[in-house]
């Protein structure tokens, strides 16, 4: 299971004054995403910039 708080797409929206998902989906992708029963987000990307560096050590 993924956590939105650590996703690279989870960004602060100053207009709404809250965090939102910044993944840009078209209508078909949005329909599949909303109707899905998956427990983990398929668009999750780690926001940890140092993950690659730690992996190389």
Task: Describe the protein.
The protein is α+β, with helices and mostly antiparallel strands and 57 residues long. The chain has one domain (4-56). It has helices spanning 27-35, 51-56; strands at residues 10-13, 18-21. Strands 1-2 form a two-stranded antiparallel sheet. It is extended and about 40 Å long. The two termini are 26 Å apart.
Strand arrangement, major sheet: 1-2
Strand content: 5-15%
Oligomer: single chain
Give the count of structural domains: 1
Q: Overall pLDDT, averaged?
A: 81
Fraction of helical residues: 25-40%
H and E string: EEHH
- Structural class call reads alpha+beta
Q: State Rg.
A: 14 Å
Number of strands: 2
- Which regions are unreliable across 5 or more consecutive residues at pLDDT < 50? none
Distance between the termini: 26 Å
Shape: extended
Largest sheet: 2 strands, antiparallel
Number of helices: 2
Describe the structure concisely.
With 57 residues, the chain is an alpha+beta fold. The chain has helices at 27-35, 51-56, and strands at 10-13, 18-21. Strands 1-2 form a two-stranded antiparallel ribbon.
Descriptors:
57 residues, alpha+beta
Which SSEs are present, and which pair or pack?
Layout: E1 10-13, E2 18-21, H1 27-35, H2 51-56
Antiparallel strand pairs: 1-2
